[in-house]
Amino acid sequence: MECTVFEAADLIRKRVVSPVELTRSVLERITDLNPTIRAFITVTPEHALAQATSAERELMLGRVRGPLHGVPFALKDIIDTAGIPTTGHSKVGMHRVPSADAILVRRLYDAGAILVGKLATFEYAHGGHSEHTPWPEPRNPWHLDYATGGSSSGSAAAVASRMVPFAIGTDTGGSIRIPAGATGIAGFKPTYGLINRTGVMTNSFTFDHCGPMARTAEDCALVLQALTGHNEPHPDSAHSSGLDLSQDLRGLRVGLVRHFWEDDLQLDCAAVAAVESAVEVLVKCGASVETARMAPLREYNDVKWVIGESEIFAVHVEQLQARMTEYGSAFLSKTLAGSLFDAVDYICAQRERRRLLDQMKHLYERYDVLLTAGGNPARLRGEYRVLNAWKVSSIYTPFSVTGAPAISVCAGFTTEGLPLSIQIAGRPFEDWRVLRVAHAYEKATGWYKRTPPADTLPTSLVVPSTTNEEVGETSSSVQQLVRHSLERAGLQMDEVLFRQLCAVAPFAFAMGERIRRSHHRGVDPALFPFD
Fold it and tell me: Known catalytic residue: 118?
């Protein structure tokens, strides 16, 4: 399946390839590659071929449903599909079969797209992969011993290995952009609310986004056209604006946010070199680039963790009270920290978020888009550690907190052959401009054309257990505070989980303290991201 979404749709419209032929080809590739890549947890051949047959019949009658007519796709398994399991990649939900499709699924069907299956994810799109979940962690097609990143891990692996032309992921703190960067594809997080989330499992009410993952920005734009629009059932759904990628970049003003990697976190030198090279490419395309400054990454990180962990803990607290042993260790190690924050922390964080949103206004006036490096290259599977997630800020978090559109696109490769990436972000509801810049960059560089060696067998890498993550001793006062938080939430846990929670507690408490010190009491909480 070497053609892009755009190419596949064009071939179908011209009747060079039929929907049934393309769907069968995709299903055969899934059969061949998925035992190695492990991107799919459910494959739906009967459902897919029935849709493809219907699409072919319509095409013969001269009817084209929409821009994705006859194009196969797959969904992250937190997105509801009627009659097809939607499990959250968890033992807790492994027998769950929704009775209705998510609104975004209906939109894709209306555009003619054909569902071939459901994709692996971090458990409930949170924490990390765990040996306790029913399905294994996907492998990175560029090097099978390396991780895909997450939480839209299966979505990235399926697209990168050419099993499907596109997939739908979700992004709460980088979960589309991180795995897209690690696997060399395009991953687009639209403006908050642009894609309706009704029928998508909630991680964070404040930060959840849905978006396309495909080989190119042009593909993402085509999928976005099918997904956007206003729908009454979800209050956060927003009106769509048109998409046009044909304009060049002359006169475009780009703000390069250097301090993210020069002051705020350590990035691999190859990741820095990739963004410096991207600056040269954009200048040659006609853009002007100058250094821009946002708030320090830690400020966005504190807001994201306090709000995000509080919200996902609230979503799962009843199930945690009744079925904690059925959750995986990676999910628990992160989600249980939500019990350590209180209502004051949450409201202060929403006030701080309002301040960060207000700070972005002068940047939106001065620059058309913002450019940052992507994250570090993919890491070995099993290197994820809960404590590291609390210690290190993410370069993707600012645009989750602000709800601005942002895309990760491939920007080269390391000497080991692992993908590098850049991140382009823009003003809210100017998604088309972000996609246009990414499209121009891709055309100028051609990195997206490279294909991973997906037929290479993995080595005998032994992935360390997340349960056995070593943690140090904590003070009796911290332990007492943690016990109080757990009692208030009605939770009981074993000694291993308790020690892990005590290990992250000082970081959580420090975030709460910083948030309380920084907020202004006269500022209303940021209940909605845009005025």
Answer: no
